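Progress note, sequence design subtask.
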């Protein structure tokens, strides 16, 4: 009903949806879906694709960084020179080995570990109800800061908290995700050149020859990669830490995160033709003026009745299945 919303069909508004199972009124969700820019941490998360189908298909999503562990976000600056790193944990991974979708291939890392020089990979399951979680997070942060390269395989979705914590720890992320998928799942692409702070390789599920993959990794980022390549690693660590402090630190620089978010939203609404500016897309603006969906003349393709959070206390259990929210 707002005159400001009706002015451009909501295309110059944005909606923060950082918690997937949140209970949102169906009427509000239908208005937002496909019109306003939706802020989220994972573009390809299955609940997002189901319940915000129009936003997903129309590209009306803005990716935000995960909130990193306090043990890394507010800690002192980590060692950034390769000579200060621990050779026994040059390559580092901690996380759940049993994930969905692309994460099904994570156990392959144990086979890689046998072939890598200085690999420290362990499967860890965190129980948020157990106080020991804080000790695990603290030890993991200390070990990550000592490491040179942090493996970041895909899990339930292409990105993970691990990417941002690696940058905070001065550990270069090795992002093991399909390049096309990851290109739309990394935050603030207008501000950050991700090739300067992270390496990319194929997802584990695509790898046929682990020996070839390990050889390529060792030759590029291993301890014996050579003076020039190690110097490049050091530079990537420095740039990654700068990027984290400026754009990803919710605890030490929330203003920087907010400014990056607003800038990226400003760029996106221009590309959608909603506002004028250096990124303004005239064709998108002309198309929007004729878009019956934005004009409210056609009903949106609605992916579900409610978000799973509407079945409080049992979001993915019997009640949710009875209501047809999950299968």
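Output:
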């Amino acid at each position: 009903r707002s005159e400001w919303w009706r002015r451009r069909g909501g295309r110059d508004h944005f909606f923060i949806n950082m918690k997937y199972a949140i209970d949102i009124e169906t009427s509000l969700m239908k208005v937002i879906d496909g019109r306003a820019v939706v802020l989220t941490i994972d573009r390809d998360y299955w609940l997002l694709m189901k319940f915000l189908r129009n936003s997903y298909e129309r590209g009306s999503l803005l990716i935000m960084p995960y909130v990193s562990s306090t043990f890394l976000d507010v800690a002192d600056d980590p060692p950034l020179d390769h000579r200060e790193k621990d050779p026994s944990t040059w390559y580092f991974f901690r996380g759940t080995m049993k994930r969905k979708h692309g994460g099904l291939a994570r156990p392959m890392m144990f086979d890689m570990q046998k072939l890598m020089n200085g690999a420290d990979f362990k499967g860890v399951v965190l129980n948020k109800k157990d106080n020991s979680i804080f000790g695990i997070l603290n030890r993991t942060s200390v070990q990550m800061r000592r490491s040179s390269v942090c493996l970041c395989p895909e899990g339930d979705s292409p990105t993970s908290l691990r990417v941002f914590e690696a940058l905070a720890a001065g550990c270069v992320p090795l992002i093991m995700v399909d390049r096309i998928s990851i290109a739309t799942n990394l935050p603030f692409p207008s501000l950050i050149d991700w090739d300067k702070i992270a390496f990319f390789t194929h997802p584990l599920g695509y790898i046929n020859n682990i020996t070839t993959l390990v050889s390529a990794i060792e030759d590029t980022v291993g301890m014996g990669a050579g003076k020039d390549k190690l110097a490049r690693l050091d530079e990537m660590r420095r740039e990654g830490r700068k990027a984290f402090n400026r754009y990803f630190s919710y605890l030490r620089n929330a203003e920087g995160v907010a400014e990056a978010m607003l800038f990226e939203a400003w760029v996106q609404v221009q590309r959608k033709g909603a506002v004028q500016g250096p990124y303004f897309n005239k064709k998108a603006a002309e198309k929007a003026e004729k878009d019956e969906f934005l004009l409210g003349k056609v009903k949106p393709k609605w992916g579900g009745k409610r978000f799973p959070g509407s079945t409080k206390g049992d979001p993915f259990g019997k009640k949710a299945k009875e209501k047809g929210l999950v299968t």
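The longest strand covers residues 91-95. Work on this subtask will continue into the next period as scheduled.
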